[in-house]
Specification:
The chain is mainly α. Helices cover 72% and strands 0% of the residues. It is elongated and about 60 Å long.
């Protein structure tokens, strides 16, 4: 029986507790005792779930990207791929807001110190989530809405823009957050789509519902 099947709720609490300590205290504040206490369990349970502290930190990064991929999976597809890009944008923001500690850990905004793995350990967990943005960009290119450039390059621009905004929002530079969405992120993403080849009028129509539920 895997640890996830044995107690998925405890696993999630341990990961969230570790991410919170990393986000607020850094790697020097990370200890099995603190994590177990915050999760309401024992250090023995922690080790039975993850084996070691590096395994726990890597699992926290994996969990952050898994939750992001789950948000992307729920974005519906319509006959307007640029409107659908807004669903990807909103899913990204919603996930970061729901999991702020995991967010800063999974992207390295919180120092992982000696727990940071090699390049493959850092990049691989995010590639599956990244594929959702690539596919959304590919659909917009195929529909003739965006220029015929690499969907990977488009996805990189989208992800970079979203991440830059989200770091500032989580640091409370936009107060209230909905003002940041309205005055900064929404027009910035619309300008990005136009810069990537969409017609301004079409982008305006497709973006009307962007972030309506965020």
């Amino acid at each position: 029986m895997t640890s996830r099947r044995a107690d998925p709720q405890m696993r999630a609490r341990l990961l969230e507790s570790a991410a919170h300590l990393l986000a607020t205290e850094g790697p020097s504040g990370l200890s099995t005792r603190k994590i177990a206490a915050a999760a309401g369990t024992s250090t023995m349970v922690l080790y039975s779930q993850f084996g070691s502290m590096p395994d726990l930190v890597r699992a926290a990064v994996d969990e952050g990207f898994a939750r992001l991929a789950e948000q992307f999976e729920r974005v519906p597809k319509t006959d307007d791929p640029v409107a659908d890009l807004g669903g990807i944008f909103a899913a990204y923001i919603a996930n970061a807001r729901a999991n702020p500690d995991l967010y800063v850990v999974m992207f390295g905004s919180a120092s992982l110190g000696g727990y940071r793995g090699g390049p493959d350990d850092v990049l691989q967990p995010g590639r599956y989530a990244y594929d959702y943005i690539i596919e959304a960009a590919r659909r917009a290119v195929a529909a003739g809405r965006l220029d015929e450039i690499s969907p990977v390059a488009i996805a990189a621009q989208i992800w970079s823009t979203l991440h830059g905004y989200m770091v500032l929002e989580l640091a409370n530079y936009f107060t209230p957050p909905d003002a940041g969405i309205r005055n900064v992120l929404r027009p910035m993403m619309r300008n990005l789509v136009v810069g990537l080849g969409d017609v301004r009028e079409a982008a305006d129509r497709s973006s009307r519902a962007w972030f309506a539920d965020v």
